[in-house]
Design a protein that fits this description.
33 helices; 25 strands; 5-stranded antiparallel beta sheet; 54% helix; 8-stranded mixed beta barrel; alpha/beta
């Protein structure tokens, strides 16, 4: 291009074509530079190339038109339009280069530039443009171009100056500035030459335009041209001294011009001066408002950073620091700005030299490390600020990097704030790291001292139970300071090794701590009781094994046993005291209720014991009490409980008695054993006692049982010395109510006040009714409807159960015969028969006669018997059952599993159905053991050819579980509550539809 310029002045005939070649060379240089260097934004460079293209076209056309130097210079309208379009494209391109690296527009700088342009423009108007503008003979278009060209050159010069001010200093910036300045000078001189009509191609003015082609072409070819479009830190237009001087002089231009014109004579440009004065005043106001807004935003950011600093000071770990940084960065950003904040904390040994300083820089997301790029996916640029080195010196170790991704416009206003935030985060992380290191070192020393001085033996055990490490305290416990290589189980006594091995297996499999007691062989083969705890730290690289801790608790356990014995035993006789006795009575009553067994309590009070103390002294009395305790032990069974309640009061708890008679026999033995005098020294001391007996047959809980025994003891005392008495219900008000109920029951039998309810028995697969259980209700005239639990017991004791059962059978058979049925089939009726009723002579004949009178087939009757019938090998009862089954009547055992019977009876007795008690069904949802038990009963019954009916089904889940384990039938509130006879008929009719 320089060669072409030299030829341009050397070869005049082809200057037009050489000028065109020179311009095209500049255009090609820009496009080649774009293709070679690939700037982030190529559009501004393309606009400059297009502007040069219009410049070349305009110059070539103008040179051809004004080829004759003897004629006045003339430019057609079309060429002027081409030139003006060129200025527009140049301004757009230069503006793009000035702002592409800082997408946030420097509004303050733009306002200052406009102020400067207006001031310079006013001076240019008065001194240069206006005299030419008013020259006689100018066409309107010449007047327009007279104004447009200088203004365009001023804007172009302002854009070049802006690039120089805001851009990073580089060779392309200098070349762009040289080219722009050359064009400005040549354009201004050309304007005067054009108006005077003496300019032609080939003069010295063309050097300025050559500088434009040369400078911009070389600027595009230089590799540093990409810096102009790279993200860079925004340099806000601060009001420095020089800027204030320039702005002040620009603002004084209108009054200065006004003063000059006023001194010279009449003011010719008053309107222009007034308009520019108003415009510049508006710019100053806008600049002031922007300064106030910037100050307010700075204060808000300062407050946000101050709050973030306070929160970071209180942070105790890296997670809290990250949360605080994200919260602060979000607060610094505009409320509606889409953003993402990443605090990438580096390793402590990562060198800070990877970042030249601690300044925040804008960078492309794709240029970040892969992990950070993934987290910031979806954003183009991010503000990257390395956290300040932990030691505060260059080249130290940095804590990480703070990355904030958002719109580039937003990020450029936050660079300073993000740098401060990153510094605060780095200080917080440095403090946390230092504290953790200090705590770690202190903890290591602390725990080392604990392990070496604790009395507990701490071991690390390998997978094969081999001890890899033992603390020094092993010497005091085992007599050896080193147990490494020893099998831990070898330290345990032989009879506990299997249990200890199971404990270690559980500790490894379940991976949870558990405490237990072992007996180990200590120093001198002395047996020590140790408390063992464990923790699985096999995954911890610093341990890599099972940590077992042994603590010697031999003395503690012995003391605990002694204290426990003293707390629950009498110190004189070593019998149980009142607290232990009451507790065992409560448990015995609960156990008796669950097992349907009988437990009894004997209250024993020595007769005339006060006389012994008064006449022979308390030592003799104490010996008497000790001898009485020994005699009680001799009378009772090993698992019975003897107790001294206080003074001369003793008690005995008899459990698992066959009946009340067995307890009464114990009372007789106690009276006989204490009837013999006790030899104490030279004296024979009487030991007669009165005994009160109470059993669980008449007591609902332990307190009531003790009250009954106390009442019986008073009755025995009233009957005379050396007597025993059993608690009688007549001693209590409940007896009166029971007698009244007995009387009402007699009347109810005579007046047939009993009604029946029927509860369906359904198939668990299709829920179709296969039978109905008849349940008796007493329609009491005063108390309303009574359930069997309220009167059956009295009926059993009084014998009224037999006539009640007869009425129930007759009514149930008659109503069952009227039930709607399908052809040849129908639901059976199930009737409960008491043991006393079944043992009545002629019961089989009576049942068959009732069936015949009701017209009900025998297969539609099922009798439910209680388990007590199976407890005795009564051949007559079993023969009756067999006879009923031969006649077609089915027999079921009711509430199976709640009595004394065992599964073995299922194969010995003639049965058809087993009714599983609802207590089994109630826990089947939550207890795997209960489910397994029910499943076993169902399978055994199926093997023996028996049907199973589950009672008390209340939920759908219970039904599904029973169906899954093979139970075919069930009844309960899930299907229906007990129904009166009319509702039963409606129920059956609904199934026939």
């Amino acid at each position: 291009m320089v060669l072409i310029g030299a030829l341009y002045y050397a070869i005049a005939p082809i200057q037009v074509w050489l000028w065109a070649v020179l311009g095209v060379s500049g255009i090609l240089a820009i496009e080649l530079g774009i293709r070679r260097n690939r700037p982030r934004r190529a559009r501004p460079w393309h606009l400059l190339a297009l502007a040069l293209c219009l410049f070349v076209i305009g110059d070539a056309a103008s040179a051809l038109i004004n080829r004759d130097s003897a004629t006045p210079y003339h430019v057609p309208l079309l060429i002027d339009l081409c030139y003006l379009a060129m200025f527009v494209l140049m301004s757009m391109g230069l503006m793009g280069l000035a702002s592409s690296g800082s997408a946030v527009r420097d509004r303050a700088g733009l306002l200052d530039a406009l102020t400067l342009i207006l001031g310079a423009g006013l001076v240019a108007w008065v001194l240069v443009i206006e005299p030419r503008f008013t020259t006689p003979g100018l066409s309107p278009f010449d007047q327009i171009t007279t104004v447009a060209y200088p203004l365009a050159d001023l804007v172009l010069l302002a854009m070049v100056v802006r690039i120089v001010v805001v851009s990073r200093w580089s060779v392309p910036v200098v070349l762009l500035a040289v080219g722009g300045a050359g064009m400005f000078v040549s354009d201004m001189l050309h304007l005067f030459a054009r108006l005077d009509g003496f300019w032609h191609i080939g003069g010295q003015l063309d050097v300025g335009w050559m500088l434009l082609y040369w400078g911009w072409g070389m600027a595009a070819l230089h590799p540093q041209m990409v810096w102009l479009t790279e993200p860079r830190k925004l340099q806000p237009a601060e009001l420095t001294g020089r800027r204030l001087v320039v702005l002040g002089l620009s603002s004084l231009a209108p009054p200065a011009v006004l003063l000059v014109e006023a001194l010279r004579g009449p003011v010719d440009n008053g309107e222009v001066i007034a308009a520019l004065t108003v415009a510049m005043f508006a710019l100053v106001l806008i600049r002031l408002v922007d300064a106030m807004r910037s100050h307010r935003q700075a204060l808000l950011r300062e407050r946000m950073l101050r709050e973030a600093g306070a929160e970071l000071v209180g942070s105790t770990d890296a997670g809290q620091v990250t949360d605080a940084v994200r919260k602060a960065a979000t607060g610094l950003l505009p409320p509606d700005a889409d953003h993402r904040v990443v605090l990438a904390t580096g390793r402590p040994d990562e060198p800070a030299a990877t970042v030249p300083d601690s300044s925040a820089v804008l960078c492309h997301v794709v240029d970040l490390p892969a992990s950070a790029a993934r987290e910031l996916a979806g954003f183009d640029v991010a503000l990257s600020c390395p956290l300040a080195p932990a030691d505060g010196v260059p080249g130290g170790r940095r804590m990480g990097t703070l990355l904030v991704a958002a719109e580039e416009n937003v990020l450029r206003t936050l660079q300073g704030s993000i740098e401060v935030l990153a510094l605060q985060a780095a200080l917080a992380l440095s403090r946390i790291t230092a504290n953790e290191e200090i705590n770690r070192r202190d903890s290591e020393a602390y725990f080392r001292a604990l392990v070496h001085n604790t009395a507990d033996v701490i071991m690390i055990v390998e997978a094969g139970n081999e001890i890899r490490y033992s603390s020094p305290s092993a010497m005091a416990m085992f007599g050896r300071d080193r147990l490494e290589g020893t099998d831990l189980l070898d330290l345990v006594i032989p009879e506990e090794r299997e249990r200890s091995a199971a404990y270690l297996r559980r500790a490894r499999c379940e991976r949870r701590g558990e405490t237990t007691d072992w007996t180990v062989c200590g120093v001198g083969n002395r047996r020590l009781q140790v408390e063992v705890s464990s923790r699985d730290l096999r995954d911890d690289p610093t341990v890599g094994g099972l940590v077992v801790t042994l603590r010697d608790v031999t003395q503690r356990r012995r003391l605990e046993r002694e204290l426990t014995h003293r707390a629950f035993h009498d110190s004189l006789t070593s019998l149980a005291n009142r607290a232990l006795f009451v507790d065992r009575v409560t448990l015995a009553v609960d156990r008796a209720r669950r097992n349907s067994s009988i437990a009894g309590v004997l209250f024993i009070d020595l007769d005339d014991f006060k006389d012994v103390n008064d006449t022979l002294g308390h030592p003799v009395g104490d010996q008497l009490l000790a001898e009485v305790a020994e005699r009680l032990r001799g009378v009772l069974r090993p698992h019975d409980t003897a107790a001294r309640l206080g003074g001369d009061e003793f008690a005995a708890l008899i459990e698992d008695a066959a009946d009340t008679a067995a307890i009464e026999r114990v009372a007789e033995r106690v009276v006989r054993a204490l009837a013999l005098p006790v030899p104490v020294g030279d004296h024979l001391v009487p030991a007669e006692a009165s005994v009160g007996v109470a059993t669980t047959r008449h007591a609902d809980d332990g307190d009531e049982l003790l009250r009954h025994a106390d009442l019986a003891l008073y009755a025995a005392k009233g009957a005379g010395k050396g007597q025993w008495r059993r608690y009688q219900p007549a001693l209590h008000e409940a007896l009166i109510e029971r007698l009244q109920l007995r009387a009402d029951l007699d009347r109810a039998v005579a007046e047939q006040e009993f009604s029946l309810r029927y509860q369906p028995v359904v198939g668990l697969d299709g829920r179709r009714t296969v039978g109905l259980e008849a349940l008796v209700r007493w329609e009491h005239p005063a108390r309303g409807t009574l359930s069997p639990d309220e009167f059956i017991g009295v009926a059993e004791e009084s014998g009224l159960i037999v006539p009640i059962g007869t009425q129930v059978v007759r009514q149930a058979l008659a109503e069952a015969a009227l039930w709607p049925t399908r052809v040849g089939t129908g639901p059976y009726v199930s009737i409960n028969v008491s043991a006393r009723q079944f043992r009545t002579p002629g019961v089989v004949a009576d049942l068959l006669r009732e069936l015949d009178e009701a017209g009900l087939p025998p297969h539609r009757l099922m009798l439910e018997i209680v388990e007590t019938l199976l407890l005795h090998d009564e051949e007559e009862v079993w023969a009756d059952l067999a006879e009923l089954r031969e006649a077609g009547v089915r027999v079921a055992i009711d509430d199976f599993g709640t009595g004394y019977s065992s599964l073995s009876y299922l194969r010995q007795v003639s049965l058809d159905v087993v009714k599983l008690d609802k207590s089994f069904v109630g826990a089947i949802e939550t207890s795997p053991q209960q489910r397994a038990l029910v499943e076993g009963i169902v399978r055994l019954a199926a093997t023996l050819g028996l049907e199973v009916i589950a009672e008390g089904i209340e939920t759908e889940q219970q039904r599904e579980i029973l169906h899954d384990i093979g139970c075919p039938f069930g009844q309960g509130y899930l299907f229906s509550k007990p129904l009166p006879a009319p509702d039963t008929t409606a129920w059956l009719l609904s199934e026939l539809k």
